[in-house]
């Protein structure tokens, strides 16, 4: 007759392999070899390098856009300053003309 076995009894190498296989199926993970882990790491590093390159290109493009916008802003500031000067000049001319008209009405 068969012998009663406990959880701690060893059934030999084939049983150990079956147990490992069952664990893998239960966990749902594939056993990863060191070479596969190295390849995964290499892929991640390559992805990170590519991302850094992309981010640097985006940064350069954004810096160029900033410089262009700052130049436009400087030009607008100069235009505003010029218009304010013209406004002041025109205001002075109108006030002078109004004063001359007032002087004509008094006479």
What features would you describe in this structure?
The protein is an all-alpha fold and 107 residues long. The chain has one domain. It contains 2 helices and no strands. It is rod-shaped. The model has no long low-confidence stretch (mean pLDDT 84).
List keywords for this structure.
mainly alpha, 0% strand, 2 helices
Quick one: how many beta strands? Answer: 0
- Helical proportion, percent range: over 70%
How many H/I helices?
Answer: 2
The major sheet is characterized as:
none
Low-confidence stretches: none
Radius of gyration, in angstroms, nearest whole number: 42 Å
Mean pLDDT: 84
- First CA to last CA: what distance? 143 Å
N-to-C SSE string, H for helix and E for strand:
HH
**Total of domains:** 1
Indicate the overall shape.
rod-shaped
Strand content: under 5%
């Amino acid at each position: 007759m068969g012998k009663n076995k406990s959880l701690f009894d060893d059934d030999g190498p084939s049983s150990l392999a079956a147990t490992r296989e069952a664990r893998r199926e239960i966990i749902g993970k594939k056993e990863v070899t060191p070479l596969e882990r190295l390849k995964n790491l290499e892929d991640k590093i390559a992805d990170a390098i590519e991302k850094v390159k992309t981010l640097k290109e985006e940064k350069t493009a954004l810096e160029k856009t900033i410089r262009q916008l700052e130049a436009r802003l400087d030009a607008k500031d100069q235009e505003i300053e010029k218009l304010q000067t013209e406004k002041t000049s025109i205001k002075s001319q109108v006030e002078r003309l109004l004063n001359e008209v007032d002087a004509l009405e008094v006479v």
